[in-house]
Amino acid sequence: MSFHTHLRAVQESAIEGFDHARLVDFMGAAWDWDVRQAEHSSGVAYSIEKVFASVNDLCQAGAALPEGLDGAWGLPVFGGRVLHDPKSPEAPFAVLDPAGTARAAVFLTAVPFDTLWDVAGAKLRDGFGPGWDADEIRGMHAGYHTGLRIFYERAAASGQAVAKAFWY
Questions:
Q1: H helices present in 46-168, as ranges
Q2: For the stretch 15-44, what's the b/e string if a residue is b when 16 or more beta carbons lie within 10 angstroms of its beta carbon?
Q3: For the chain, what percent of residues have pLDDT higher than 70?
Q4: Using an 8 Å Cβ cutoff, are 6 and 36 in contact?
């Protein structure tokens, strides 16, 4: 079973007026593995498998933020305008506007992984339970932090928004 968050950089004009159904269609168009691989390779998409809540916890570690970045810790994973399905209380889709995308990029660049890990690493390791190698957990989070930083830097440099799906 796949359980991941999927982010796609897109021009804001392409998603203006999106409702939940249109975002489901837009994100669903990239569900095909070949499409996802092509988008990942070109830098317009990024995914976090299974541990996206843990990566979000890393971003929210409580590390001191540079001036002007208050609240930016919540943008990279779950941040954005949530689009609700009128038939369900769950909202597995969100859109982060270009300004939020730029703030997320600045946050991920300005607050290094090691700073976040120093604050949150022990708690995140404990959340994985016994049998997990501490270096593997750290490496997984470092890789996702780097991937998010690169993705958001590219999207911000192009003035793009980010569409997000949380697939189960």
A1: 52-59, 98-110, 113-128, 134-157
A2: beebebeebbebbeebeeeeebeebbeeeb
A3: 96
A4: yes
Side chain identity at residue 93, one-letter code? F
Instruction: Find out whether 50 and 31 touch, Cβ atoms under 8 Å.
Output: no
β-strand pairing of 93-96 with 161-167: antiparallel
* Per-residue pLDDT at 102 exceeds 80: yes
Task: Please state, in angstroms and rounded to a whole number, the distance separating the CA atoms of residues 87 and 71.
Answer: 30
Arithmetic mean of pLDDT, 13-38: 81
- Say if residue 101's pLDDT is above 70: yes
Q: Of 30, 94, 15, which is closest to residue 56 (Cα–Cα)?
A: 94
C-alpha 142/C-alpha 135 separation (Å) is 10
Amino acid at 113: F
Cβ atoms within 10 A of the Cβ of 13, count?
8
Nearest to 142 by CA among 51, 45, 66: 51
